[in-house]
Write the structure tokens for this entry.
Amino acid sequence: MHPEAQEYYNIASWLKDKVHYHSISKRIAIKRAQVNHGEIWYCDLGYNVGAEKNKCRPVLVISNNKINNSGKVVVLCITEAKGKLNARNLPSQDSWFLLYCTTTDDDKKIFPGRPIPPKMTSYSFLDKDSVVQCEEIKAVSKARLDMTRGPIGILTPTDFQLIKQKFRRAYNL
């Protein structure tokens, strides 16, 4: 398929999904669904422009529970960590926070045989080593969250506090 035709197909496909999400966003059950500050959910971010995050991926709910009682939540995108580290095996950007998964599969680690540093937590609900990108903030309808799965996990209070500090620094708050 010609690349431009593929773009049109991807946009049309997302438009169909978006109409579906718009329809279910009107349901009272979706608006009242309990989503909590600090939880990680799968969210369909759709088909976006340029470097914006696309597809269904884990996101961290950063909005407070008062906002979360409405029909939307504010999230930070989580993406694969491979290729996003510097020479010291730290995230390349100051606004990124590295999350380790518990996998034994070297293909899902930032590098084969990587150790988990002391004081760092590994998370069984992550498929692969990941990065929370604090500059990738989005307000999304709860209809985009995978309500069938529910929250897939929650970060330790220490990790969540460090992410909030990175978020504040990223936006000079």
The longest helix spans residues 3-25.
